[in-house]
Structures are given as structure tokens and as C-alpha cells.
What does this fold into?
Amino acid sequence: MTDVDTQADHRPTLAAVAARAGVSASTASLAFSGTGPVSDATRERVLQAARELNYGGPDPRARSLRRGRSGIVGVVLEERVRDAFRDPIKIATLDGISEEIGAVDSGLLVLTEVAGDSDEASGSNPLTLRDAPLDAAILMGCSPRFEESIAILRARGVPIVAIEGDPGDPDVPIILQDNREATRRGAEHLRELGHERVAIVALPLDKEHLRAPVTPERAAAGANATTRERLRGAWDVFPDAPARTTAGSFADEGRYAALEFLDVPESDRPTAIIAQSDLLAAGVIRAAESLGIAVPAELSVIGFDGARVDGLWPYDLTTLVQPAVEKGRAAGRAIVAMLNGDEGETQLFTGEFHLGNTTAPVPA
Amino acid sequence: MTDVDTQADHRPTLAAVAARAGVSASTASLAFSGTGPVSDATRERVLQAARELNYGGPDPRARSLRRGRSGIVGVVLEERVRDAFRDPIKIATLDGISEEIGAVDSGLLVLTEVAGDSDEASGSNPLTLRDAPLDAAILMGCSPRFEESIAILRARGVPIVAIEGDPGDPDVPIILQDNREATRRGAEHLRELGHERVAIVALPLDKEHLRAPVTPERAAAGANATTRERLRGAWDVFPDAPARTTAGSFADEGRYAALEFLDVPESDRPTAIIAQSDLLAAGVIRAAESLGIAVPAELSVIGFDGARVDGLWPYDLTTLVQPAVEKGRAAGRAIVAMLNGDEGETQLFTGEFHLGNTTAPVPA
DNA sequence: TTGTAGGCGTTATCAC
DNA sequence: GTGATAACGCCTACAA
It folds into this structure.
């Protein structure tokens, strides 16, 4: 303990500063907030007193009670931090969000969904969306607990925006991607190149994140709408294309799944693979490389996201570019609007086809 | 607007609920917080009233003023969200932090360092560490504004922990990595394999993130302590090893830098490269592959982090494993201790050498 | 087991 | 320009 103030349980208050400066608390408040008229001399006196007392400025907790705003926007993730942040799309989206909410002096609080009531063996119960001082919340990705989260937040009067998931609540603006249509455009590109034997490497479909072939039942029952829609888009063009789900959007997962399709007699092999993310696509390419299958000469590969996968060189992946940062910005703007008492805008984003060098005409 | 309560500016308060239930506010408070004795009948009546009024529970803003705790721990990053979250080590550390602070019902608020006073052309001024309702803060990585951030937080009486950076303040526990010693151990491994011509692919050294050779002056003046220490460790063993800085910890950056070292006559080529991160190492390997240089037969590569780079298969990178999650946990525990009025513990972590298959004896 | 009183630190509103 | 007053919504002694 080097400093006098270090151990003090009682930090100076605005009142103390005011007293020392010989003014009233309200005047001192004005001197800090800049709202309203204060003479320069008075302000200086107040600031001087604050310095002397080592006063660090108005307490944000008290301020947020009084103003009814905490300056905090919650981002509700369905997974733990580690998993959510491995997804470059989520990160880009967060970046867009944080950019926009800066306009209302807000910061991002990371939350995960409310846990089941009983199954918390960890003994730890982090700050939940039930008792975090939020001005607004952004739900990223739909999930089983979606509804519950929304109910809690609504009861609190916290404005909500949903990204990639539709709670079906007219008061909740949603930010969506044209997953089905975009995937269909990619598939059509393959068909134009003459491909007929096409396989799909899919994102996780259900909570268990199974590595398994997609049966019609699984496709119908799957909890993940994004995966489902992208499957539909591919099947719109190639109704019989076999698909396998992976345990997550990682290159290694893409490689495992691709090996199942590729490590077979050449006659059974697909001539093209539709991967549901760029990371998966990167793994597909590695799998092909390892089997001596040339991309794109012998196998065309298409991704989804446009995430500029690091280390994929010399390949320039053909993919559907998702405007991830822009989606985050849209969510942020919706939040800002709602915080200002306006309506948040629902927006549908369109994936842009990027032609790289990983697709080619079907081998003769 | 589908619902009566949607537009209500005035949400019900605890007092309103109490009134409706025919009890006093304090009793209603007890019914919610679970602190103190309330008869089951009364509690039920209160809860019932709450349901009828659509009361979502006590307002966290008021609660945090009253209790003096917001349940929020700030993580101060030196870069914008997008950049910080591309580093797997930072993410793992965040994960460890969030795990531990769950024990005190806290969540993570993402902040970036206080901006310069004038150069904010963007017009956006996000929530800063000056006015966020923080119970504690974790500074990740040292930086020029380190001191200023600390001064602000100290004046507020906010407990601080620093990761990978030493503010030299006895009240700030620090969580460090043995960057120099760990790197030295890796270098010694290379020396034992007979390597003499070794090059270094380094992390950014100064704020500009230059891609350039490291001169003694740059090494001495560099702002980034982590980079500097790892350079020292390598030079402890190979004093003349040439080094190049990259623009960031990415595979593509590693590839660029490695090409500078490798795309030369064979006699001038290093037989081993020390990369300062696993992602950089992945790029080094790709560069070698693209030049037809076999790893590890013709070139040994060593990394730093132990981040299990996705998509690096079939290589198992020889590296120094940094206990990133554990470091986060240590930081979280220090925070929890300080929040409980105890002292936070400073900790030094040791990198563990992992022998993979990317190093081999120097070619004959 | 329940109610009463007071205050957490700030800021908005009004007089002066 | 400045000061008094009254909330903001909740929690916690303490008294009943």
C-alpha cells in the first residue's frame, strides 16, 4: 500500500468535492458534466478541489441510476466465449456493432444465455441477462433458450435485436442473411460448370454437433436455422446431394468430412463440394491436397462467408461473401434507434458471389 | 406494438409490486433477493403481484448503486475488437477470465484504451474506462497509454490486474509469461540439433507494425515488450540471427517474412526459423512448402503459443506452449481476491516445450 | 416474520 | 450563474 487513498473504502463523492470548493453539489455536477452554465472560475475551483481530493469523476453507478442509462449493450452468445470467438464472422459482426453503439457512448458486455436452472455443477454463476445493467441487448444466433431470453429482457423493458434468428416478435428487429438464396447461387455456378455429383460439408445442425450424414429427418428437425437454410439452397439445385454435418466451423472439421466423401474410388467421388463456411472449405481443400486431388482441376470447392481465411494461399476461395461487419453495424444502428425511442429496422442482407480460383468446369 | 407494456416509459418498481401484494417494499425486496426470512405465503403473493404487473425483477442499476457493485469487470484491449479477437491466445485468456469471475457473479465488458483527446474524427466516443460502471479492470498487453489508463482507474478506486505488461505499480498484480526463457529453450533445442543458421520471424515491435528487418536500434526502442523479450531469448542462443518483424500474428504475415529469408540461394538460407507465434510458424511452413523446401528435413520451424493452429495438419508444430487459459484464470482469481478485499497475486507462467514434428537435425 | 427509515451518489428542475 | 430540493429504485439495519 503505497498510497493514502489505496485502502480507503470511502472514495470522495461529488458532495465532498463541492464542499471543498465551496459550492453546492449541483454546481459541482455541472462543472463535470459540462451541461448548463458555470463560470470558468467556479469550474476551475471545482476541478482543483477534485484534484486535491483525488476524485476520479462522478460514480457511473449513481449516474446510471439517475439517468436511467448504463451505457452498456449486452451481446448474448449461445456458446462460451472461447467457441463464439473462434468464428471470424461473429467477430466481424461484433466489430460492426461496437462501432455503431459508440455513437451513444455504449460498450459491449459479453453474456451467454441463461443456463438451465439445475445443471450448473460448476458452482459459478456469472452475471446473467437477468441482472446485468443493460440498456439494450443483441441476441446472436438462435437457440433453444431464445424465447426464454427474450421473455426476460422484455419484462425488463430492454430493447432487443436478433441476428440470424427470428423470435417472431414484432418488437424485435432482426438482421438476417439470405442463406438459402446465396447458397443456391453458388450451387448454380457449379451446375453451370457442368457439375452433377456434388457433396455438402455442413455446419452443425443440432445441439450435439454430431459428425454424421444428414438424413431428411435430421435436416427437418435440426435446431440451427442457418445450417438448414444453406442446406435447402444447395438442394434447390442438387436435390440428391449427400451432406455431412461437422462439429464446428473449423478447417480440421472440413477436412474430416471431406475425407469421407473423397477417400473412395474415383468413380464414386463428387466433382464438387459445397462447404457451408470458408473454414470448412479450407479443410476440404487440404483433404483434397492430401489425397492428391487437384483443386480446382479435379475438385471444385465453394465456401460461405468471405472471411478471407488466413493461410489459404495460393487459393482464392470461390465463396458467398457475407457482409458481416455491415450486419453488425445494422444491428448497432437498430439498437441506437430504439434507445432514441425510434423503431429499430429489420434488415435482410444479401450474400455476394465471389469467383475465386477454386472452381472449374467438371473434369472431362 | 403488440403489448400494453411495450411503450411504457415507466416500468413497474419494486414498490409498486409491494403495494399490489399488500406488503412493504422491504418485504418484497426480501422475497426477491432470498436474503432474510419471508414466509412462503408472502413470497408467493409478492411473486404473483410481480407476474401480474409484468415486473422483471429489481433494476440492476439501482441495485448496483445501493450495493456498490455492478457485477462488471472491464477488459481493456489495446486494439479494436476485430484485431484483438483474431489472436487465439487473447481469446483463450478471456475465456479463463470469464470462467473465474463467474464466481463473483460478474461479466466481461469489452473496452479499448482511452483515445487521444483530439484525434477522434469518427465522431463516435464509446463507453470509456472513465465512465463505465466497473468493479475491476484487466489490462491486456502493455501500450503507450498504459499509464494513463491506470491513473484513471486508480483514481476511481477500481482494482486492476495487468496481463503481459508491468505498470510497475505495487498495487497492480501482474500476470506474466517467461517469454525470454521459453524462447531460449526453443532455441537451445535447435542448437542441440546442430542448427547454426537461424532466422527469426517476429511479432510487431512498434506501433506502426512495420514489415522490416530488426535492427539493434529497433529492438531496443520497440514498444512491445513481448516481442522484445522473445527476441532476446532467441539471441541468447543465436546472437547473430537475423530477424524480421511482421504486421501481425497471422499465417500470411509469417509467409511473407519467411519468403524473405528462404527465397534466396540455398547457401544463404537458414536451416531453421524461430517464429514468435504459432500462426506465424504456420505461414513459415507454407512458405517453405511453396518453395519446395521440406519441413523438417530441410528447414526446422518452431513456434510460440501452443494454440493448436487449425488446418496445419499433417504438421505437429514444435512450439512453446503458453498456458493461456490458465493465465486468464489467474487474472480472474486476482480480480476476485481484490474484490473480496484481499491482495491479488502476481504470477509468472512458464512456457512448456512441445516437441512436434517440425524440427529435425540440421541437414548434412 | 414484517414494517420503518434512511441513504447509496448523482442529476433535473426549479427558484433565486 | 448558483443553490436548494427532490427524486432515481433499491437494500439493510433496526425496531416492532
Q: What stands out?
A: Confidence is low (pLDDT under 50) at residues 1-8, 117-121 of chain B.
